Amino acid sequence: MAQTIRTDVAIIGAGPAGLLLAHLLAADGVESVVVEARSAEYVAARIRAGILEHSTVDLLRQVGLATRLQAEGDEHRGIYLQWPHERHHIDFVDLVGRSVWVYGQTEVQKDLMAAHAATGQQIHYEASDVALHDIGSTSPSVTFRGSDGRAHRVEAIAVAGCDGSHGPSRTAAPSAGRQTWERAYPYSWLGVLADVAPSTDELIYAWHSDGFAMHSMRSATVSRLYLQVPGGTSVDQWSDDRIWDALATRLGHGQGGWRLTPGPITSRSVLPMRSRVQAPMRLGRLFLAGDAAHIVPPTGAKGLNLAVSDVALLAPALVALVRHGNGTLADAYSETALRRVWRATHFSWWMTTMLHIGTDPFDAQLQLSQLRWVAGSAAGATGLAENYAGLPIRY
C-alpha cells in the first residue's frame, strides 16, 4: 500500500524552478513536497546557464537568496558584439539602466538546496515511476516510487510541473487540451569548461564565417566557451587542440592585441539548439513552469531567467489559491507568463539567427548588416540591451 502524504502543493522537479517555488511558498506559509527523479548530487552538479537578468537578481535579493551571489558573482554592464576585425561594446547600464550578473546555475542550485534544507520541507530524490492523477479535479495527486522502493502518493491542492522537457508534467494533460510550437535549428553548440582565467572582462558574442563563437566565464579562474558545430556532432570529433584553434580563429586572437589564453578543458558537451513553447501553462490544477513549458536556444541567456519569472508569477497565484481560495491569479497565470515567454523566445531566435552561420551567403551579408546596425544605432543597441538585461517579470 502506498504511503500517503498530504500537502498544499506537490512540486515535481528539484531544479531552480522547483526549489525556488518551494522557497517562495514557504515564505508565505504554504507547504510543499518536492519530487525529483534524479539524485541530489546529479541535480547539484548540472552545468547550465550562467547569466542572471536584472529582475532575477532583484528577486533573489528580495527573498534572501543573494548573499553568495553578491559576494562571488560578477556584475557585468554589457556584452561585446564581434565580427572579423571589429568588436563593439553594448553597455546595458548606459542604455537601459540595468546590468546582468555572471553566476552559474550550479551556484544558484547550491543556494536553493541550502535554503530548502533549512525549511525542513520534504524532498524526495531518485523518485521513479512519477505519475500525475486527477489534475482536472480540485484534489490532484502525484504517485511515485521512492529510492527505497516504497510506493508514495502525494495529495495536494495543486501540482507544479517544474520537471523539464522530459518529465511527466509536460504531457500529463490530454493532447487535445494543449498546443505546442517548435523550431529546431540545424546547428548545435559545443560547450567547454576550462580551468583558465577568462580572456575578457565581459562576454563576447562573435560572428565568423566559420561559425559562431562565444567567450563566457564562470569565475575568475574558470572560462566557459562555445562553438557553433553541425547538428549531430559528437564531442569525440573535437580534440582540445582543435577546440582552442577554432576559438582563437573565431574570437579574433591577435586582432588589436587581444589574445585568447587556452587552458585545461575539464568538461565538454554538445547542446542542440531548439525552441519550444507549450500552451496553456495551466491545465486544471497542474501549473507548468520553466523547461516543462518552454525551451529556448541559449544564445539570449533566457532559459534560467524564464524559469525564475514563471515561478515569480506562479507563487503568489498558488498562495492566493491555497490560503484564500482565490483563483484569480491562478486563472491568469498562463496568459501572463506566456507574454514574457514569447518575448524571450523571439529575442533568443533573433540573437541566434543574427549570429549563426548557415549555408546561404546572402543570409551572411544580412547578418553582418544587422550586426553593424545594432552596434552603430542607439535604437538597435537599446533593443538588445532591454531584452538581454531582462524585461519586468510582469511584462
Keywords:
single chain, 395 residues, alpha/beta, FAD/NAD(P)-binding domain, D-Amino Acid Oxidase, Chain A, domain 2, 2 domains, 8-stranded mixed beta sheet, 6-stranded mixed beta sheet, 36% helix, globular
Verbal overview:
- Helix 1 runs parallel beside helix 6, helix 8 packs antiparallel against helix 9 and helix 10 crosses helix 11.
- This protein has two domains: 3-53 and 60-73 and 105-181 and 275-353, FAD/NAD(P)-binding domain (3-Layer(bba) Sandwich), CATH 3.50.50.60; 184-273 and 357-389, D-Amino Acid Oxidase, Chain A, domain 2 (2-Layer Sandwich), CATH 3.30.9.10.
- It has an eight-stranded mixed beta sheet with strand order 7-6-15-16-17-14-18-21. The chain has a six-stranded mixed beta sheet with strand order 9-3-2-13-20-19. A four-stranded mixed beta sheet has the order 1-12-11-10, with no helix packed on it.
- A hairpin with a 6-residue loop joins strand 15 and strand 16.
- The chain has eleven helices and 21 strands.
- It starts with a strand and ends in a 6-residue tail after the last helix.
- The protein is an alpha/beta fold and 395 residues long.
- Helix content is 36%, strand content 27%.
- The protein has helices spanning 16-27, 40-45, 54-62, 67-72, 92-96, 105-119, 240-251, 303-324, 328-355, 361-376, 378-389; strands at 3-6, 9-12, 32-35, 51-52, 74-76, 78-83, 86-91, 100-102, 123-124, 128-133, 141-145, 151-155, 158-161, 179-194, 204-206, 213-217, 223-230, 265-279, 282-283, 286-288, 294-295.
